[in-house]
Amino acid sequence: MGLSTREIMDASLDLVGWDDVPADSTIYVPGERIETALVGIDLESPELQLAAREGYDLALAHHPAGGRARLEFPRVLDRQVEFLTDHGVPEPEAEEAVAELVERAELASHAANYRHDPSVAELLEQPYMNVHLAPDEVGRRAFVDVAEGLDDEATVGELVDGLSAIPELAAARTDVEVRVGREENAAGEVAIHHAAGTNGGAPVARAYFENGVDTVIYIHAGADDPRKLREEFGDGNLVVTGHVASDAIGMNALIDALEERGVDCTPISGCGIGRED
Ligand SMILES: [Fe+2]
Ligand SMILES: [Fe+2]
């Protein structure tokens, strides 16, 4: 009875048909025969103590919390370049747009206390893992479906309405926001820049706008990025869907898959938003 942490990792990959565990996802403390899981977007030391105290067989987080997922996180940023080149940004320009982000991520990974949360889980003997890129890919595909369902003349406002109808985004207390541009603008060519580790900041949005993309979708944006882009681009649109709501899309899909296989999941920390039992 129950699943192993490895089987749960595989279940996350099966959601999107992938074979390899992404660099930002890992098992910190393995477990077997898992029948109950505390599932959250952020599960760190305090939540691990909660999981142990309440007797959960597994603490299952979305965001990387240490170990390989923290140290090797910059590797998933390769997808930033992939998404840019898919929209016609020349590879050297794409690499350059992402260079600062990659350097910052490498410095941050190198500096991080990659042992903190995993070591707490070890001490508690609490099975603990995180799955990041694969659930985000589920969310990305949900956004792609919305964008592909629009007609050629659709406005940014219609794109926002379509995104806002995704159950997690509809249920969340955050709205889908147009941070650069206007709802009346044509959505035009839409780039969904999600499931690439993190958002691309102003440089990535700039590279899209300079290469014929009209609308960029991020799930979150840095505090200064929209202002920088507004100053430079009169006609680009940046739509920000909302971080927790967007992360919940893939995590809810994983919860559904685990529940189907007999793992009783308790969602906290943003997971479960907009999910129907
Ligand atoms: Fe995410
Ligand atoms: Fe996230």
What fold name goes in the CATH topology slot of the largest domain? Udp-n-acetylmuramoylalanyl-d-glutamate--2,6- Diaminopimelate Ligase, Chain: A, domain 1
CATH superfamily of the largest domain: NIF3 (NGG1p interacting factor 3)-like
Ligands and ions found? fe (ii) ion
User: Helical residue percent?
Assistant: 40-55%
Tally of helical runs: 12
Name the helix and strand elements from N-terminus to C-terminus, one letter apiece: HEEHEHHHHEHHHEEHEHEHE
Q: What amount of the residues lies in strands?
A: 5-15%
Report the CATH architecture of the largest domain: 3-Layer(aba) Sandwich
Secondary structure: number of strands: 9
Order of strands across the main sheet: 1-4-3-2-9
Average pLDDT taken over every residue: 97
List low-pLDDT spans: none
Computed structural class: alpha/beta
Shape descriptor reads globular
Total domain modules: 2
Largest sheet: 5 strands, mixed
Distance between the termini: 22 Å
The level-1 CATH class of the largest domain: Alpha Beta
Global Rg: 19 Å
Which assembly state applies to the chains in this document?
single chain
